[in-house]
Amino acid sequence: MAAPVAASLVPRVSLPPPARLAASSTRGLDLVSLPGGRYRHLRLRRSPLPAGTAAASSPSVPSSASDPDPESSIGHALGGVEIYSAATGEPVLFRDLWDQNEGMAVVALLRHFGCPCCWELASVLRDTKERFDSAGVKLIAVGVGTPDKARILAERLPFPLEYLYADPERKAYDLLGLYFGLGRTFFNPASVKVFSRFDSLKEAVKNYTIEATPDDRAGVLQQGGMFVFKGKELLYARKDEGTGDHAPLDDVLNICCKVPTVFCKSSSLMCICF
């Protein structure tokens, strides 16, 4: 009976009042139809909107067209976002984490450091890191919470500290328009996917502790996503629809390893890779 055990892994938290959930404003991602309507790409949304409303867009699309204005690109905007190194606790900008001209980076945004499903994702990323390294790709894992919460995950999972970063104010999540809210976190149908990975989840949380949960309990309502960049160019973007609804690593690796002309399609992913 896997479901009751998995449910017990979800920490009990006091949810913030509804006003807190819609208090922040953000620039997010819009989906734009290309000529012919076959594929779509992402562009930076300039108008502010409440954090909880970012879920209006499709969860995943590629960036298969270059933005004519580099200053308005997602990569350019994300580069100025400040997060914190789990290793040192010091602030760092995204643009300083990889070569902004030709460097390849996988940016994995976890939910929060006290999320059992994120411990599982972090363990998969850790075990896949050698393949990223061999492809010359920098792995960057970001979670909601403070650096001290990140270090709890890193020490107990374990996960290499030098690739782990904290975003306590969810700045990158807001910029990228990742899903946020009670329904997405606890009641989205996509969350049932985690039961198909129950053995992997069970292994990842052997040393789990709820102490890694952010002190700001609003952070537990944040969903994650996966992004691949070449320099400032966004090659792949996927929003997690629900808790545990992670990007397929095979798709990410295909892009990182430059497999030519791959077309991928599933209920939550459509991408064209060159």
UniProtKB/TrEMBL annotation:
Family matches, as SUPFAM superfamilies: Thioredoxin-like (SSF52833)
Region feature Disordered, mapped onto this chain: 50-72
Matching CDD domains: PRX_like2
One Pfam family this sequence matches: AhpC-TSA_2
PANTHER family: PTHR28630, THIOREDOXIN SUPERFAMILY PROTEIN
Protein name as catalogued: Thioredoxin-like protein AAED1, chloroplastic
Taxonomic lineage from the root: Eukaryota, Viridiplantae, Streptophyta, Embryophyta, Tracheophyta
